[in-house]
Amino acid sequence: MSIQQQPVAGNAEDAVASLQQRAAGLDRQDRLAHCRSLFIGTDTPLSYLDGNSLGRPLRRTPEDVAAFIRDGWGGRLIRGWDEEWLELPQAIGDQLGRAVLGASPGQAIIADSTTVVLYKLIRAALAAVQDADRNELVLDTENFPTDRYLVEGIALEEGLTLRWIETDPAAGVTVDQVRQVTGPRTAVVLLSHVAYRSGHLADLPAITQAAHDAGALVVWDLCHSAGSVELDLDGAGVDFAAGCTYKYLNGGPGSPAFAYVNQRHLATLNQPIWGWMGRKDAFEMAAGYEPAPGIRGFLSGTPAIFGMLAMRGTLDLIEEATMAAIREKSVRLTTFAIEIFDELLAPLGVELATPREPAERGSHITLDHPSFSKETVAAMWEGDVIPDFRSPRGIRVGLSPLSTSFEEVLHGMLAIRDRLQG
Amino acid sequence: MSIQQQPVAGNAEDAVASLQQRAAGLDRQDRLAHCRSLFIGTDTPLSYLDGNSLGRPLRRTPEDVAAFIRDGWGGRLIRGWDEEWLELPQAIGDQLGRAVLGASPGQAIIADSTTVVLYKLIRAALAAVQDADRNELVLDTENFPTDRYLVEGIALEEGLTLRWIETDPAAGVTVDQVRQVTGPRTAVVLLSHVAYRSGHLADLPAITQAAHDAGALVVWDLCHSAGSVELDLDGAGVDFAAGCTYKYLNGGPGSPAFAYVNQRHLATLNQPIWGWMGRKDAFEMAAGYEPAPGIRGFLSGTPAIFGMLAMRGTLDLIEEATMAAIREKSVRLTTFAIEIFDELLAPLGVELATPREPAERGSHITLDHPSFSKETVAAMWEGDVIPDFRSPRGIRVGLSPLSTSFEEVLHGMLAIRDRLQG
Predict the structure, then answer these.
(1) pLDDT band for position B12 (50/70/90)?
(2) Dist. CA A134–CA A187, nearest whole Å
(3) How far apart are CA A136 and CA B244, in angstroms?
(4) According to the model, what pLDDT value does residue A192 have?
(5) Domain assignments of chain B as residue spans, ordered by start
(6) Which residues contact B320 (CB under 8 A, 6 or more apart)?
(7) What integer is the mean pLDDT of B68-81?
């Protein structure tokens, strides 16, 4: 590093010692500390700072899944569908609604991948817009890539105009911006609740209201908020929402997504992929498609039962812990990470790409530095610290409230400092 | 039962004894007999005649999956994507192509559910048809329900006309029928290779040729043939195909589907669900969708890694056994089942709804009787025999060449006879 950082070396050692004490104290006070040991790998020195990409498995998951293969799949065979599996997408959806989404029963379901769920929801939202003059779809430049790509394709096939909000990554998408671009031409607003890069937490209730005031419908992407931020979708009057289950819900790599459809849209729900599992009386196999009533009409193909098993353990744990306690720990974790940043990384020229106000961020922070690259993170992955890289120059530090300890955060961020000093 | 069956009771006992000897002999001669013990539950008295709905798990699967959760997901965490998982849909697709589909590498991929894959393939096929006058989609009345429902939705959104071939279930869809309905207005022909109810095996090469002669493209649904019937998709010049992996490929309930896109369509492949995993350089997360080259452009969302684990064991086994040997055993199994039908069930008024010519059937047979109902099959499920029911009055007997024994077939069909005599 450049010379001007050298004089602070002694102070930095003091600072680290003080941060270590602070981490130990925060871990002692952590009311969710007992949850950490329920996850595989938390007894190793590994600092895992990417649970917001892929959450750790619970310790119970290998045996839960193996038992399902032996006794459920292997023992009940085809009978399992009638006995339990056919209802599982809705049963888990209801539990998710209760534990995580703030959704009363019958509005959430597990299905497909996030991308396919978003495709179906956006098409369903467009179908629900009666006014032919509303041919604009609003989204923002900080939206997750799949959301951006999807709507390009949909705009092409449906003859829609995309209205892009140019979001300042540090400030995040604001209610004012949404008010400015929405109006009598707006059909649908598609936004991410927590921005995948900056961690900015959008004001979901106010933006939903703004969209509704303009006569538009909203589709929220909850990938980075489900399981880390308290949600009240029913209370906010959200129209549609989607999210993934492999981040804070620990469903495993590529576990199926969830969809939320507000009950006021269920009776007229019109999603484009008409498959047997979404049909009324699926096993009649009768001629002609008629959607099943309620959220079940959102289904298309055979539900990925195998991929739904792991998330159930986390949902049980979340119900026990409560989302309020999880969010509280999440705020403490990100606050502590920012404290470490201020002490150790800001002096090295690192910039915080995440809002400082706790109410404006989710459960990850992003640290920018001109020297950060894919290779920086790849080198860290070979050691015992695993953050993620986000283009063009960000190291993203994800903090999973149920499995991350404060000492783990410090350990990981010290490794980032060491990279800069290396 | 009615009185006229009574006199054959003595003969029937002789017939059963003779069939038992025959079953034992066939099992002794079975070159794939050793495979059966590799599956869970084959050491119980259960007669499982529904592997064509949900194949049994391999004995290795619980530990394979548990080890993946502990060491792969739990140990490699997010690093697993770069190290292996991102390539898995194509790697397994290539193995499937080699072992099962008759497809050279780079044309098959694991993704989504069968329904979603078919939606994307049909839309891609329609996009590949350049001629705007071709606005008809041909399918048949014996096609699987999800195929029929899907195209209704697609026809509505794309302004297409559906041309239905009224298939005689016993005879199956024929080349002549396809020639009759296809012509200068035909865009796409969508058919099932093996009919889900009757088990009729369509003449895939000749029908593909007939569609091509009419200037149309074909999409084949291989759900009931992949893993039971020899396939040569490349040789037949098939355009697109889809199938599921939870039947003869033992992927587990709701395991992801596969897609095949003939290489001549890859350069211009245009599927409608534009997601991050199908984009060129996905992790650049750059603005604007550009499809990844080759079959990867078929992907939309995050691949269901968890759901891909179980099928790998079966693909290894199929490569070892060869599809030729599997098909040979399949024919022996269905031939024996028809022999039992002739001896024991035909005299009781049961009708065979499946072609008698081995070259015209897949690996299941369907038995119709006025008294057969959902309740008949539900009652059998409470015992140790598991066939399936297919409306309006069919008991479907599915025979999985790798895991079904000849004695198991006889045991199961005796239970069907007992129902009729009960």
Answers:
(1) confident
(2) 5
(3) 37
(4) 97
(5) 3-59+324-421, 62-319
(6) none
(7) 98
Q: Which amino acid is at A261?
A: V
Q: What is the token pair recorded at B49? A: 């005649």
| Mean predicted confidence (pLDDT) in B136-165 | 96
Calculate the alpha carbon distances from A61 to A40, A87, A319, B66 in Å. 9, 21, 17, 8
Average pLDDT over residues B13-40: 97
A383 touches chain B (CB under 8 A): no
Whole-angstrom distance between the N-terminal and C-terminal Cα of chain A?
A: 8
- β A257-261/A108-111 pair status: antiparallel
> Which has the minimum average pLDDT: A46-60, B7-21, B104-118, B385-399?
B7-21
Q: Which CATH superfamily is domain A3-58+323-421 in?
A: Aspartate Aminotransferase, domain 1 (3.90.1150.10)
Q: Residue B3 above 50 pLDDT?
A: no
The partner residue sitting opposite A252, judged by closest CB among B149, B256, B306, is: B306
C-alpha–C-alpha distance, residues B404 and B407, integer Å? 9
B9 pLDDT above the threshold of 80 = no
Substitution target from A68, A146, A246 for chain B, most B beta carbons within 10 A: A146
Q: Residue A297: what residue type? A: G
* Residue A111, pLDDT score: 98
pLDDT in tens, B37-58: 999 999 999 999 999 999 999 9
What is the residue-averaged pLDDT of chain B? 95
- Whether A56 has its CB under 8 Å from any CB of chain B: the answer is yes
Would you call B124 an interface residue with chain A, using a CB distance cutoff of 8 Å? no
Count of residues making up chain B? 422
pTM of the model: 0.96
Distance from CA of A188 to the nearest CA of B (A): 18
**CA proximity to A375, closest of A419, A317, A309, A331:** A419
Residue A11's pLDDT is: 78
Task: Flag whether the ipTM exceeds 0.85.
Answer: yes
Task: Specify whether the CB–CB gap between A226 and A242 falls below 8 A.
Answer: no
Q: What is the pLDDT of residue A171?
A: 82
Show the tokens assigned to B130: 């350049």
CA–CA dist B250, B39 (Å, integer) = 10
Which of A59, A60, A115 to probe the B interface (max B CBs under 10 A)? A115
| Paired residues of B388 in beta bridges | B396
Q: Which one is the CATH code of A62-319: 3.40.50.2300, 3.40.470.10, 3.40.640.10, 3.30.750.24?
A: 3.40.640.10
Q: How far, in Å, are A119, B83, B340, B349, B365 from residue B415 at the CA level?
A: 47, 50, 12, 16, 16
| CA A327/CA A318 separation, integer angstroms | 11
State whether B66 and A63 contact (CB < 8 Å). Answer: yes
Average pLDDT over residues B173-202: 97
Domain with residues B3-59+324-421, CATH architecture: Alpha-Beta Complex (3.90)
The pLDDT tens digits of the residues spanning A317-374 come to 999 999 999 999 999 999 999 999 999 999 999 999 999 999 999 999 999 999 999 9
- Helix ranges (DSSP H) in A30-98: 33-36, 61-67, 79-83, 88-96
Mean pLDDT of A59-82: 98
What confidence tens digit (pLDDT) does each residue in A207-245 have? 999 999 999 999 999 999 999 999 999 999 999 999 999
Q: How far is residue B218's CA from residue B238's CA, in Å, rounded to a whole number?
A: 7
Any chain B CB within 8 A of the CB of A48?
yes
Alpha-carbon distance of B143 to B164, in angstroms, equals 10
Full strand arrangement of the beta sheet holding A388-390: A351-352, A364-368, A394-398, A388-390
**Residue from A36, A123, A396, A419 carrying the catalytic annotation:** A396
Cα–Cα distances (Å) from B213 to B190, B193, B327, B382, in that order, read: 15, 19, 29, 51
Bridge partners for B192 per DSSP: B221
